[in-house]
Design goal:
- The complex is a heterodimer of chains A (about 130) and B (about 650).
- Chain A is about 40% helix and about 20% strand.
- Chain A is α/β, with parallel strands linked by helices.
- Chain B is of the alpha+beta class.
- Chain B folds into 4 domains: about 1-175, GAF domain (Beta-Lactamase, 2-Layer Sandwich); about 180-280, PAS domain (Beta-Lactamase, 2-Layer Sandwich); about 290-450, Beta-Lactamase (2-Layer Sandwich), CATH 3.30.450; about 480-645, Histidine kinase-like ATPase, C-terminal domain (Heat Shock Protein 90, 2-Layer Sandwich), CATH 3.30.565.10.
- Chain B has 18 helices and 24 strands.
- In chain B, a hairpin with a 2-residue loop joins strand 23 (about 620-630) and strand 24.
- The longest helix of chain B has about 55 residues, at about 425-480.
- Chain B is rod-shaped, with a radius of gyration of 52 Å.
- The N and C termini of chain B lie far apart (about 110 Å).
- The chains are: A alpha/beta (about 130), B alpha+beta (about 650).
- The interface between A and B is medium-sized, with 22 and 29 residues.
- Chain A: This is Response regulator.
- Chain A: It comes from Antarcticirhabdus aurantiaca.
Amino acid sequence: MAQSFDPARYAVLIVEDDALVRAEAVDLCEEAGFTTYEARNADQAIRLLERHSDIRVLFTDVEMPGTMDGLKLARAVRDRWPPVAIIVTSGRIQVEATDMPENGLFFAKPYPPRGIIKALNDIAARIQN
Amino acid sequence: MLDMRPHHLHAGRLDALRRSGLLDRSPEDEFGHLADHVRDVLDVPVAIVTLVDEDRQVFAGHSGLPEPWAGRGETPMTHSFCQHVVDRRAPLVTSDARLDPLLRDNAAIGDIGVVAYLGIPLSLPDGEVVGALAAIDTQPRDWSEADMRRLRSIARTVEKEMAVRISESRWRSLFEGLQEGFILGRVVRDTAGRIVDWRYEAVNDAWHDLLGIPRGTAVGRTVRELLPGVEDEWVSEFARVVELGEPVRFTRRVGTLERWYDGSAQPIGGDHFTVFFSEVTERIKRDRRQATLLTLADELRGRSDLETIVTAAARCLADGLDVDRVGSGIVNLREDTIDVRADWCEPGVSSVAGRHAFSSYGSYIADLRRGDVVAVDDISMDPRTSGRQAAFDAIQTRSFLDLPISFDGRLYAVVFAHSRLPRPWTDGERQFVDQVSERVRVALTRQRMEDAQRVLTQEMAHRMKNSLSMVQAIATQTLRQAHTMDEAREAISSRLSALARAQDILTQTNFTEADVCEVVNAAIAPHRVASDRISIAGPHAALSAQQALGLSLAIHELATNAAKYGALSSAVGHVAMTWSAVDDTFVFRWIETGGPLVVAPQRRGFGSKLIERIVAAYFDGEGRIEFDPAGIRFTLTGALAEPDSRPTA
């Protein structure tokens, strides 16, 4: 691991409409050392992305109230902020590979905490190199 | 005169004669030959075989008879000696009729020149005397015993011939009476000896009817001459019958006649064969429609969308009806138009793909909207389409059948069958289309149920995953802050119990909403100590599923804390829960009084995070805990469920 690795330099944007699940996701990411931002829908998420350039990872649920679901948000983010890594999670049985943005990662709910942390660390490592 | 024609009274005899078929002329002149024989043997100028009918005598055979009698083949009764043979059922002998009181006035004497007459009765096999064999001389003649014996002998031969003729006639009338067609055929060979055709040598009446060909036009012609363009199998199969000497059964179509036949062909020796057959066009069509319906049932099984169901129904009509064009179109009710995507057309018939206005074709759209099948035999005769002939001419249609396909009570699509010529739609065809319609309706209904079931199942799976995510969050959050495993175990299981109680309430409403009163009561139930220690007051109001789960967890946290350190930990403390729901604003208060002195905690755990931040987020509002020394107070202010998920008042 590189000496200068400091996950706090990389913020994760957590988009999840269930407050309880969102709170847990925030704790999970912060425990791994990342800075977090929270949004309960896609519109809030877009506003946060526009304001905070340190966001390097989008961690979003698929099913959300509002104009955009998580997959649409993911595609919008891939278009507007290409460097942002994307992790999608859903309680739906399957999300079609064709619906996923390029290089997006998918985790079925309930997701494995270690798997998420490993994915976040891998992303951070990739950004650093 | 009465005694001249007593045969009138012999109705039985006349019936027998007429039924025998002997009165019909036969091309073979067996009786004529026998009359020749009489002339030779008895050396007389004239011999006749007569059949005595009601008011005439008919010559079954004759020899030496002068014209015009020979050509006419019969005489009136005024010229009949033979009637007396028949009446008496006994021979009549006269040497000179001119001198015989019975015969001297008979017109045959003057007109035909009968002078001497010897007549022997002729009987049918059943004994009825129907005529006579007579030897006639134009001169007086004394008949000898030998003459009588010889004539009797020849009369027996005539009777045997009559018996044969009757038997043949019975068979012939059987053929003619048959419903089945009969063919006696003989194969036609080319110079190399190969069978290339066959000729009709005999056919019965039914044959003409079954082929729709005028009587008397077949015998002597070959099948290829009679039915130009007939399928080769009609020759090759009967050729095999002749060459292999084995009978075959067949069910085959004559395409040019558009008829189906079912029958058998038998070899009868040499190049001859016979065929018995019946027409089975209707049966074949019925069978084909039945098979088509089965295919449709298979196709509709597991079909998912409306459009494939419509296409399957159109294909079914194309297979089951003999028409010139079949297709389907999606209806636009607002515009009163139909968009035809695809159609199958016979050669020479052009496609009608594209948009059409129903109004161009008449008024039958009203019937389609009602869900009725529209069958028009002739567009110029039907009141719904008459006057629209030009529009129908433009699409080469003279008769049609439209099958409406409705979904949710609205006309969605029409499957159509068009014919260039007027065409009465048969009961069988109408029933077939009704059955297609019924199967489509069933498929659509089943499709809707399956769709609903699939949505429900997916929704249930989704909710379960969300619930598990909440459980995961509660468990990890609790573990993260627990000091001991025992504490963690206790906290996790009691929090999950609170979640489960709220789930119970939600189950009743299919996870859409829950009444706040029910949620509060269920949440506090495990913590109730004495009835007067906890008071609850607030109106009925609907909470969303997430709000119900959140409020339930919040009350659980507050009650657990109160039991450990607050109002419910002492013998006299009191908890008051009140809430109000005015417009969209929901305010919930938890107020403890009479408990031990409250000290604000050093460290805020998951419990306070839950009630202050998480639950508040479910209400899109805020939650505040006040550590008033007199008792803990919690106030949740937020909005009720989204308007679309609230029950209508």
